[in-house]
TrEMBL record:
GO terms for biological process: phenylalanyl-tRNA aminoacylation. Keywords: Acetylation, Aminoacyl-tRNA synthetase, ATP-binding, Ligase, Mitochondrion, Nucleotide-binding, Protein biosynthesis, Transit peptide. It comes from Thrips palmi. The keyword Transit peptide applies. It is found in: Mitochondrion matrix. It catalyses: tRNA(Phe) + L-phenylalanine + ATP = L-phenylalanyl-tRNA(Phe) + AMP + diphosphate + H(+). The keyword Secreted does not apply. This is Phenylalanine--tRNA ligase, mitochondrial. Is responsible for the charging of tRNA(Phe) with phenylalanine in mitochondrial translation. To a lesser extent, also catalyzes direct attachment of m-Tyr (an oxidized version of Phe) to tRNA(Phe), thereby opening the way for delivery of the misacylated tRNA to the ribosome and incorporation of ROS-damaged amino acid into proteins. Belongs to the class-II aminoacyl-tRNA synthetase family.
Length: 462
């Protein structure tokens, strides 16, 4: 949900990939951890950083039972660490779980193999802690891409982070021998705070790889790959033929149009928009009309051949897509605020207690509690970089789910002092009860203190 577009960027120049192939043992370890759910939380050898040298004590951080050396990149917060254990996509009778089940059941029915079994397999228990190589380099994300900034992602240290998209596992799963798979999981992005943005949300990614033989029966006389790599154009990569891209994009688009119909009803209005992702070309976004407005539903495209070949499937061409589950669930069930997904209040959870994920449900708001609005203004420290996302994180850590929205309402530069001032408006509202003025003031003051302490700002009203 939060900034679903963050992996897009137009007109960028790809820099060479940093070569850091997963070793055979790393791939084996990954496959083991996927196939045995009992072991899936056990630390993988390949992801355990080296112990610090005895002579210089290094600060460490323990997340999901694994130790990480802290460095200048570390910006993960205790609130986020706590949320990692919730795994909403695995909680039966949770709207995120129900949407996952509906997507999975659509793919199971749509693609059936020779023996009558589903062709796609589902991975919904992969560790959200990934390397920056998995999240970015393996997907050709350029070194200067904004999603790599500390202000946009949650880092354990400069090598490990919380995945910012489930696409992070794509290369490893292909390298382990899979051709058709879905990945479902929690993803983490630092972002603004409002009713549709939350730093943790859920995605479903898919990959389908096909060989020459599977795509074109011999008698067609058509080829998937150019004999000699051709020119890369707006319509195709150098390695692929026009015929292959045409048939693959037809498959991809009809599959996703039908998925949108399965989720939103046969009459849903949709349109295709050209897009850019570093890991697919050509790329598109599917938008659907909801309550009179176009809504971006998912990103997709023909997989970059370089990624597929590097993962050991160079004889195949593939399509991939990624979709945000909260976006879908909010529309399908009429859920007005993204924070509701995190509610443990039975008046919310009870409404999604159904055996069949296809049961039609419309969320009934229990009641709406009043909002309380407070502003906070401060001078930004003259030296060093200040990013609003650092402040949003503090607000969220201190205020938790009492925070409905934070927005920058005013900023100016003092002409004499040459100092910058920011004013943020914080809207407080609890989903489950009325907040008292005292309670809000206490939290508001604490946010101010934390901002002074952690960001070095100077409060304008003390
Ligand atoms: N990972 C992309 C995102 O989070 C979505 C995507 C996945 C696009 C796979 C293309 C292919 O925005």
């Amino acid at each position: 949900m939060a900034k679903i577009v963050s992996f897009k960027m137009k007109n960028i120049i790809l820099r060479p990939l940093c070569v850091q192939n997963p070793t055979c043992s790393a791939v084996k370890a990954l496959v083991c951890s996927m196939s045995s759910s009992a072991n899936s939380d056990a630390p993988l050898k390949s992801t355990t950083p080296a112990l610090p040298p005895k002579t210089s004590p290094v600060a460490t951080l323990t997340v999901s039972g694994k130790q990480f050396e802290k460095d200048s990149y570390t910006n993960i917060t205790p609130t986020i660490i706590k949320q990692m254990s919730r795994k909403l996509h695995q909680q039966k009778c949770h709207p995120i779980y129900l949407i996952k089940e509906r997507i999975v059941s659509y793919f199971y029915k749509k693609y059936i193999g020779r023996t009558g079994n589903p062709v796609f397999s589902v991975y919904d228990n992969l560790d959200p802690i990934v390397t920056t190589h998995q999240n970015f380099d393996s997907l050709l994300v350029p070194h200067n891409h904004s999603s790599r900034l500390k202000s946009d992602s949650y880092y354990l240290n400069s090598n490990y982070m919380l995945r910012a998209h489930t696409t992070a596992h794509q290369s490893d799963l292909i390298a382990s021998g899979l051709d058709n798979f879905l990945i479902v999981g929690d993803v983490y992005r630092r972002d603004t705070v409002d009713s549709t943005h939350y730093p943790v949300f859920h995605q479903c990614d898919a990959v389908r790889l096909q060989t020459q033989h599977e795509l074109f029966p011999e008698e067609y006389g058509l080829n998937v790959f150019e004999k000699k790599p051709d020119r890369r154009t707006d319509d195709k990569q150098a390695e692929h033929t026009v015929d292959a891209v045409r048939i693959l994009s037809y498959q991809l688009k009809t599959t996703l149009q039908d998925l949108a119909k399965a989720l939103f009803g046969q009459d849903v209005e949709y349109r295709w928009v050209e897009a850019y992702f570093p890991f697919t070309h050509p790329s598109w976004e599917l938008e659907i009309k909801h309550n009179g407005e176009w809504l971006e539903l998912l990103g997709c495209g023909i997989m970059e051949h370089q990624i597929v070949a590097k993962a050991g499937a160079g004889d195949r061409i593939g399509w991939a897509f990624g979709l945000g589950l909260e976006r879908v669930a909010m529309r399908v069930y009429d859920i007005p605020d993204i924070r509701l997904f995190w509610s443990t209040d039975p008046s919310f959870t009870k409404q999604f207690t159904v055996d069949d994920p296809h049961t039609p449900i419309k969320y009934q708001p229990v009641s709406v509690y009043p909002i309380c609005v407070n502003d906070i203004s401060f001078w930004i420290p003259p030296e060093g970089e200040f990013n609003s996302n650092d402040f949003f994180d503090i607000v969220r850590s201190v205020g938790g789910d009492m925070i409905e929205e934070v927005s920058l309402v005013d900023q100016f530069l003092h002409p004499k002092k040459m100092m910058k001032s920011h004013c943020y408006r914080i809207t407080y509202r609890h989903m489950e009860r009325t907040l008292t003025k005292n309670e809000v003031n206490k939290v508001h003051n604490e946010i101010g203190c934390k901002a002074v302490e952690a960001l070095g700002v100077d409060l304008r009203v003390k």
